[in-house]
UniProtKB/TrEMBL annotation:
GO molecular function, one term: oxidoreductase activity
Database matches in InterPro entries: Bacteriocin_Proc_Enz, Nitroreductase, Nitroreductase-like, SagB-type_dehydrogenase
Nitroreductase domain boundaries: 62-239
Annotated SUPFAM superfamilies: FMN-dependent nitroreductase-like
Name of the molecule in the record: SagB-type dehydrogenase domain-containing protein
């Protein structure tokens, strides 16, 4: 056997395959889905403006998209932040469908922000309330050093005006897709991230996705438990 086949990643992919000639069976028992929308009801709310979209050519935006790691010290506007959040997970239909696809429309991904420089918003950590399109303030303060350290010292975290952090509420997806759900969760995060990267390009902002970080240190910053909800992806955004 090739040595890589003994790795946990390869084993996971092998054991979550679908086959025509045998059912997909697991031993994880009953899984109850958490609520579709997460909210912090006692947090201070920051209303986001309705997005005012720039005029952009999709094909030119796709061609221009690059990862930027060097940002100026200029702040994002609240309007720019609103457009980015809407691009990632804005609700686009009465049925609750969003801008980015999700397996089974289960939407297991939550969006948090570490804000360094956004006009009219104090520096701190925030949660994006998708259902009501506002931010929920979790804690004020400068977390750029802690975030940089948790991201293996990547200085792009400190230079960014805002860092998007996506967590996965695992059981939202596992309730339907069982062990195979983990495959779909990372696909969902990728769809959301790409939408934001393209929106940032259309706004003439820089953005850089980041997958290398100390997971539980990021989770601790956000106040999530690393079990039912855990950090899976980051993106730094700033002026260029």
């Amino acid at each position: 056997m090739k040595i890589y086949k003994k790795g946990i990643g390869y084993k996971y992919l092998s054991e979550t395959k679908y086959f025509r000639d045998r059912p997909f069976i697991d031993d994880i028992g009953m899984v109850v889905s958490p609520p579709l929308y997460k909210a912090y009801p006692h947090a201070q709310k920051i209303t986001l403006p309705a997005p005012d979209f720039p005029s952009s050519d999709l094909w030119k935006v796709i061609t221009r998209r690059r990862s930027y790691r060097h940002f100026t010290r200029n702040s994002l506007t609240l309007e720019e932040l609103a457009i980015l959040l809407w691009a990632g997970q804005g609700i686009t239909s009465p049925q609750g469908y969003r801008t980015a696809p999700s397996a089974g429309a289960l939407y297991p991904i939550e969006t948090y922000l570490v804000i360094n420089r956004v006009q009219d918003i104090p520096a701190g950590i925030y949660h994006f309330n998708v259902a009501n399109f506002f931010l929920e303030e979790l804690v004020k303060g400068d977390f750029s050093n802690a975030l940089t350290s948790a991201a293996l010292g990547q200085s792009v975290m400190k230079r960014a005006a805002v860092v998007f952090i996506w967590t996965a509420v695992i059981l939202r997806c596992m309730a339907k897709y069982r062990n195979r759900a983990i495959r779909y969760i990372f696909l969902d995060a990728g769809h959301i991230c790409q939408n934001i990267l393209l929106a940032a390009t259309a706004l003439n902002l820089g953005a850089c996705p980041v997958g290398a970080f100390f997971d539980e240190e990021i989770d601790k910053l956000l106040g999530v438990d690393s079990e039912s909800e855990m950090s899976i992806y980051l993106t730094a955004v700033g002026k260029i």
